[in-house]
Amino acid sequence: MPNATPEITLAAHNLSRSFGNRQVIHGVSLNLRRGEVLGLLGHNGAGKTTTLQMLTGCLLPDGAEENECSIEICGIDLLRQPMLAKAHIGYLPETPPLYRELSVDGYLTFAARLRGMKPGEAAEALARTKQRCGLESAGRKIIGTLSRGYQQRIGIAQAIIHRPAVIVLDEPTVGLDPTQIRDIRTLIRELGDSSSVILSTHLLGEVESVCDRVEIMQHGKLIYGDTSARMQRYGCIPGFIISLRNPPPLSELESIAGISSVEQISAMQFRVLHAPDANPRGALLTLAERQGWQLEQLTPLQATLEEVFAQITDAGIADEKNRNNMQDNQGPVRAEPFGKAQESLVEACTEATDALSLSPSTSSGRTGDLSPSTTAFSPELAEGSGRTGEEQ
Amino acid sequence: MIRLLALRELRSLFSMPSTWFALAVLQFIFAWFFLARLDAFLEIQPQLAQLANPPGVTITIAAPLFNTAALLLMMLTPMFTMRLIAEERRSQTLALLLSSPLSSRHIVLGKFFGLLVFLAVLMAGVPLMLYTLALGTALDHGLLLGNMLGLLLLTASFVAVGLYVSALTTQPVIAAIGALAALVGLWLADIGAAAEDSPWHLISPLNHFQNFNAGLLDSGDAAFFVLFSLFFLLLAMRRIHNNRIYG
User: Fold this and answer.
1) Labelling A312: which of A21, B104, B198, B200 has CA 20 to 30 A away?
2) Is residue B195 within 8 angstroms of chain A, CB to CB?
3) CB < 8 Å to B93, chain A
4) What is the SS3 assignment for B215?
5) Which of A97, A106, A116 is facing B96, going by the closest CB pair?
């Protein structure tokens, strides 16, 4: 962060929206500062797209006329002065809004001019944006003939070509192959240095690798908001999956101190759960080496989005009173719905993984690395050294 | 902004092969009609010469040709207007326009003028063919200009109706059929109404074209076309605005 508190580029307050009788968004409030990447995490149908549509002016929130809600982009009221405010927004909807019959250059120039750029500026912006999105070679091609990955990149290019202060990306990596996902995540990180970015996603990993801050959305409400690093602790479960080439009987594994349950997944794979404050990995690895179980792989368990939701909502229920009070007091900034028990659980879990450095994903934060948080052991390594494995 | 949107519309139209195909086929049809009319005129010319005040070449060839063009246009305009907004909605490019610093007025007028310019180009073949007659004879320029102006105003009113219907739906096909039904409906109501002062005559664009077709410039007819187009354009703007409310 260059300045102590960068300016707020987007401030939305109390957004609600219903379609017919069904209310899909309930009083959502968001703040975004310059240089921040915010991840809007939630299942399909949680209301992410509707929220983003409201933030970009494609959809009016309920009660817009009665002043019940407000959206400010760089201090300009989007609902009162849409023309001025929208010049600062770049939006990539779920489906990239491409005119398939136009050439890439023609389309991007149109997008730039549409946001009020002069022809000279637009030409310069076109060259810069194409370079940034890796579209240099595609300039004259017709958009309809390009692959999905290219089309997604053109979609991002149209959203950033006019250098908006707020960039809104709705599921930017959906339908792309891993290399393209990595490229796009790197690009989003870069964009986050100069502008504010909101992206919606249903992938936990995406939030971990690109976002500074997370808001989790469920049934049209924001149920949790915190920094991405703290959110990741929720993704950690006290347990791991272990592969042994020469496995012992199940009871032998269960008898190791600290292990609460062992479940056999296949002939050589076991799911091991342990108490959050215990760390039986060291003991297990030493034993494995001594008994010749030939350890192949040890993977920390990663929670699914489902489980993270469950944890967060559980914490929320335990702490409901507390949270409600804090929400009332703080308005748009949501309180951290940690229960005491939850806090200690999470802390212990993080310590446990840090001690063994078995979980690159928790330590590396936002490297944009796609490698799963797996620590693979070669049998020789496990046998040869008495130490627990850190192959990197 | 309106110009930018109109140019985009034109560029999209001209980058589609179907547009060029339609252009080619229509020019062929117009040429066919023109030559058939010319042929008929040459056949009856000796008899016409015996009349005291014979009709000229312009009124015998140009007026029916423009009338045919007007009828063809009524069938054709929905094919071109159907894509204007329905297609944008279906392929979700409307989000680009709605999230850009544009008002619904820009969007609607941009599309309206874009297509109007295209249809003017499409129709330009008719007067061009007629002006080839100037090589051999004197033409009634007033009648030709009146017809051209009338045809342009008529096209504008057709485009406005088509644009509004296209703004109502997500399916271009429904937009096409809806606009065709509206235009043909107005025409049928007009020719079906027997009474001289039936209100159906008043609201039918093709009926108001008849004066232009006969070379009569009536400001009432011109005002009708302007108001008719404006009415549907305003409805279309309203619909685009409501898009933000109803999603």
Assistant:
1) A21
2) no
3) 97-99
4) coil
5) A97
CATH class, A8-233 region: alpha beta
Instruction: Chain B: give the shortest CA distance to residue A7, in Å.
Output: 22
Is B91 within 8 Å of chain A by CB? yes
Identity of residue A387: R
Which is it for the CA torsion A289, A293, A297, A303, positive or negative? Answer: negative
Rounded to whole angstroms, how far apart are CA atoms A285 and A271? 15
Going by the DSSP 8-state scheme, the letter that residue A103 receives in this structure is: B
Contact yes or no for A100 and B8 at CB 8 A: no
Q: What is the mean pLDDT of chain A?
A: 76
Arithmetic mean of pLDDT, A348-353: 44
Task: Indicate the pairing of strand A295-302 with strand A269-274.
Answer: unpaired
Q: Which amino acid is at B19?
A: T
Question: A90 - beta bridge partners?
Answer: A167
A6: DSSP letter: P
> Which residue has tokens 């549509």?
A53
Q: Which residues of B touch A114 (CB under 8 A)?
A: 1, 4, 96-97, 100-102
Contact A98 B99 (CB under 8 A): no
Q: A212 to chain B, minimum CA–CA distance in Å?
A: 25
Phi, psi of A147 (to 5 degrees): -75, 170
User: Given this structure, which CATH class describes domain A236-304+371-384?
Assistant: alpha beta
Domain borders along chain A are: 8-233, 236-304+371-384, 305-349
Q: Which is more confident, A344 or A289?
A: A289
Across B173-225, the runs of DSSP E, i.e. the strands, are none
Examine the pLDDT at A362 and tell me if it is beyond 60: no
Name the closest residue on chain B to residue A164, using Cα atoms.
B100
| Domain boundaries, given as residue ranges, for chain B | 2-246
Closest C-alpha among B78, B3, B70 to residue B33? B70
Q: Which two tokens stand for residue B84?
A: 């204007």
- In angstroms, rounded to a whole number, what is the distance separating the alpha carbons of residues B10 and A271? 62
Min CA distance, A351 vs chain B (Å)? 46
Q: Which one of A58, A83, A99 has the shortest CB-CB distance to B98?
A: A58
Beta-carbon contacts of residue A267 (< 8 Å; ≥ 6 apart):
A247
Instruction: Report DSSP state, residue B196.
Output: T
Is A115 in Cβ contact with B101 (below 8 Å)?
yes
Residues in chain B: 247
Interface probe, candidates A19, A52, A58, A69, chain B, greatest B C-beta count within 10 A: A58
* E strand residue ranges, A34-105: 37-41, 70-73, 76-77, 89-92
Chain B: closest CA distance from residue A83 (Å): 4
For residue A191, the surrounding DSSP H or E stretch is: helix A178-194
pLDDT of A369 reads 39
Among the listed residues A318, A338, A336, A317, the one whose alpha carbon sits nearest the alpha carbon of residue A327: A336
Give me the residues paired with residue A216 across strands: A41, A224
